[in-house]
């Protein structure tokens, strides 16, 4: 009797285990598992080795310290069968040696073809061919709430997969340390972390709609990715030129807010206000005028200057950008064709807007002239000061400084590092 009772108690458990053991894989297969099997071979591990110098806390003044190797791990994916790999710029920043590990275990040394820290995208090249590849898809037709899958390869030989939905598009958020502002990011509740940073974000059809980026740390359950349409132009420029080529419209824009609108007597409360139009620029040729308010760009509403900049990131040189403009109670439609900036434009903006003229010398870029009443003069700069860098980057040549000034035009300002004697000062100027 006791054995019969025990059997009756255990029978359901035994039957459940037997049924589970006999459940075929085909019954457990979902669109997500099929997609992961298909795309995983193109997702790679990125190992970046660098040397970190630690200053001695007691004798650092004398230049004493120690050096130690450091390693950062992230993900990437192959976009071209001939060995072109995409990852995040922050994953390989400062690396002296980069190794790409494929899903089949092969370790390949990689060269950096180009990197752009503002877009957080880097393009690598490995010596291999006939690799499984994942070309970029489109991000212009995304639907809020659609299923997304984030894939990474943080350790090599295995993938990590997280799923969720697309929560929002067009997010403008600061980087983790707050030193940079990123625009037009995708937001998802699929977990984005340092391990899958640089890997692809896919829709349920297997199209790459974005590049995961963990440089932005949100609250728990929030992840961000670079949209595929924006990444495409950056990657094309990095492949062709080794850096992102700035586009020039000749319109100096600021984000419109109520106080600024009252100051200029404008009825609109949101948009991008045109503060200045450079002569003979694409904006001037298109008919843009000062005090115009851009309320839409490329068919998308504009709430701030960053929205116009985002549109510029997604178009090729010479392609028309359709703008909806409010001017004195009228609504106009203007077509602007962004172009490559003229030679020397960055240094011209530095001189006209900030009031600085520099000369290249053996010790760096020396301030030759400071215009009276200029922002540079108001901040106390004077001839003989040395400009060491801009936007956190060292600028040893006038061309490098000019490029950073043009980057600053997109952001609305530039951060200059200036040396006087033994001291280095960091000064912020609006553009």
Describe the structure.
- There is one protein chain.
- This protein has 431 residues and is of the alpha+beta class.
- The chain has 4 domains: 38-54 and 68-126, Trypsin-like serine proteases (Thrombin, subunit H), CATH 2.40.10.10; 147-241, Trypsin-like serine proteases (Thrombin, subunit H, Beta Barrel), CATH 2.40.10; 251-337, Roll (Pdz3 Domain), CATH 2.30.42; 345-430, Pdz3 Domain, CATH 2.30.42.10.
- It contains 11 helices and 24 strands.
- A 6-stranded antiparallel beta barrel has the order 1-2-3-6-5-4. A 6-stranded antiparallel barrel has the order 7-8-9-12-11-10.
- β4 (97-101) and β5 form a beta hairpin.
- α9 (345-354) packs across α11 (398-411).
- The longest helix is centred in the N-terminal third of the chain and has 21 residues, at 2-22.
- The chain starts with a helix and ends with a strand.
How would you summarize what this structure contains?
The chain is built from eleven helices and 24 strands.
Please give the largest β-sheet: 6 strands, antiparallel, barrel
Compute the gyration radius: what is it? 26 Å
Summarize model confidence as the mean pLDDT: 85
Q: By CATH's scheme, which homologous superfamily of the largest domain applies?
A: Trypsin-like serine proteases
Number of domains: 4
Outline type: globular
Low-confidence stretches: none
What portion of residues belong to β-strands?
Answer: 35-45%
What topology, given as strand order, has the largest sheet?
Answer: 1-2-3-6-5-4
SS-based class: alpha+beta
Distance between the termini: 90 Å
């Amino acid at each position: 009797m006791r054995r019969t009772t025990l059997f009756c108690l255990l029978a359901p458990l035994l039957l459940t285990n037997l049924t589970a053991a006999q459940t075929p894989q085909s019954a457990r297969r979902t669109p997500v598992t099929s997609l992961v099997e298909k795309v995983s071979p193109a997702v790679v591990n990125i190992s970046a080795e660098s040397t970190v110098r630690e200053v001695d806390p007691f004798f650092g003044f004398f230049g004493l310290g120690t050096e130690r190797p450091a390693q950062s791990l992230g993900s990437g994916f192959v976009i071209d069968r001939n060995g072109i790999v995409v990852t995040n710029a922050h994953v390989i920043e400062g690396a002296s040696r980069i190794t790409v590990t494929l899903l089949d275990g092969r370790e390949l040394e990689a060269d950096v073809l180009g990197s752009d820290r503002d877009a957080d995208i880097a393009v690598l090249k490995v010596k291999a061919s006939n690799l499984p590849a994942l070309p970029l898809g489109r991000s212009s037709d995304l639907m809020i709430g659609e299923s997304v899958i984030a894939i990474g390869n943080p350790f090599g030989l295995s993938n990590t997969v997280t799923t969720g939905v697309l929560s929002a598009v067009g997010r403008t958020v600061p980087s983790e340390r707050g030193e940079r502002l990123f625009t037009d990011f995708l937001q998802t509740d699929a977990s984005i972390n340092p391990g899958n940073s640089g890997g692809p974000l896919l829709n349920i059809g297997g199209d790459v709609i974005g590049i995961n980026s963990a440089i932005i740390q949100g609250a728990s359950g929030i992840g961000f990715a670079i949209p595929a349409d924006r990444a495409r132009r950056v990657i094309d420029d990095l492949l062709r030129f080794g850096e992102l080529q700035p586009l020039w419209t000749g319109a100096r824009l600021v984000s419109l807010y109520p106080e600024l609108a009252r100051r200029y007597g404008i009825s609109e409360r949101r948009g991008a206000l045109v503060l200045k139009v450079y002569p003979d620029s694409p904006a001037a040729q298109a008919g843009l005028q000062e005090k115009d308010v851009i309320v839409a760009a490329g068919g998308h509403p504009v709430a701030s200057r960053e929205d116009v900049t985002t549109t510029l990131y997604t178009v090729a040189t010479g392609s028309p950008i359709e703008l909806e403009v409010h001017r004195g109670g009228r609504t106009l439609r203007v077509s602007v064709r962004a172009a490559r900036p003229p030679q020397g434009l960055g240094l011209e903006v530095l001189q006209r807007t900030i009031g600085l003229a520099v000369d290249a010398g053996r010790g760096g870029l020396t301030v030759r002239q400071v215009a009276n009443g200029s922002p540079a003069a108001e901040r106390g700069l004077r001839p003989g000061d040395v400009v060491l860098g801009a936007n956190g980057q060292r600028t040893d040549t006038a061309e490098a400084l000019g490029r950073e000034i043009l980057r600053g035009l997109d952001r609305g300002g530039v951060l200059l590092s200036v040396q006087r004697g033994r001291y280095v000062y960091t000064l912020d100027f609006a553009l």
